Amino acid sequence: MTTIVAVKKNGVAAIAADTLTSWGTLTESSRHIVNHHKIFRYADSYIGITGSSAFKVIFEHWLSREERRFTLDSVDTIFDTWLEFHHQLKAGYYLREIEREDDQFESSRVNILIANPYGIFAVTSLRAVIEYDTFTTFGSGSEVALGAMAALYDQPEQTAVSVAQRAIEISAEFDDGTALPMHCYTVDLKK
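RESULT FIELD:
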């Protein structure tokens, strides 16, 4: 399980994630797993991934082997990148095609958050790309994190980092699929 949050406030974007790894009912903390990071850097973007832990490895592998550099600076460029990634998931990484019969589109089976100088973005498993102006979250603790961010965001003393970190901390307290420690990264937004 995973909880990932992204917050945009006062010219800064922050992205944070917990470090718990789950395999069905078995959970393993970051104490046991070396590669427990759920956020990685690509160019000027931080990318957080929910879903199977294989997706982070696959996405990093695919990006490192692509000859062209993808830009993730808008809804359109992220969508174009994600269409190509979904194609490669099927062709090179053997993604099973059908998740649910009632889905209107084929699922990528992964949700991601992106924080970069251009803002904070979400990509859903059906490849909808959404740009946010304040905050968003994905994962098992997302309902708790969303409530925490809503309660904290408008408080003047709170920063993008403090809101993101508290959201993960509170999720870890109340969601059994979220655990500390966390990782949090920031980027200055372009004006």
